[in-house]
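Course exercise 7: structure representation. Students receive a sequence record and must write out the corresponding structure in token form. The form below is the worked example handed out in class, using Copper oxidase (159 residues). Read each field label carefully; the graders check that inputs and outputs are placed in the correct fields and that the protein name is recorded exactly as given.

STUDENT ID: A-19
EXERCISE PROTEIN: Copper oxidase
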Amino acid sequence: MKAAIFGLLVAALATSALASGNHVGGHGEAMAVGEPGKKANATQTIRVTMKETEDGKMLFTPSTFKVRKGQTIVFAIKNAGELDHEFVLDQEDKVMEHKAVMEKFPEMEHDDPNAIRLAAGESGEIIWKFTNGGTFKIACLVPGHYDAGMHGDVTVAGK
Ligand SMILES: [Cu+2]
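STUDENT ANSWER:
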């Protein structure tokens, strides 16, 4: 249900929505960044820590990733900070749309396969198959966090 509501909100904000002629933000549509993966197919586990720093930044460590097209990755994510954080994996324009929605509706949660929200001290996983080459974003879209530094890049090599 949460995901469905989010989809509607995104559709309302999306400017690229009209071009597709489909219900935008709809789940089950192919995403440029790839698709949910199966753990059995994963060839690499990448550990990512999320936390605030003493000088007021919020960071993913590491924040840049290089993978290969076709690869399934387990992102093993730990919130080592004191606030809730999110790990959202998507193409940059989707991340920015989603960021705008979150700024309007900060309590919104999502349970999409490409995103996870973790309370302080929690750990979780995103298992993802990168089906397209290109550069994609990871981001925490809790309001203010992206602008405090909480984003990174995933480069997918291969045609
Ligand atoms: Cu955050």
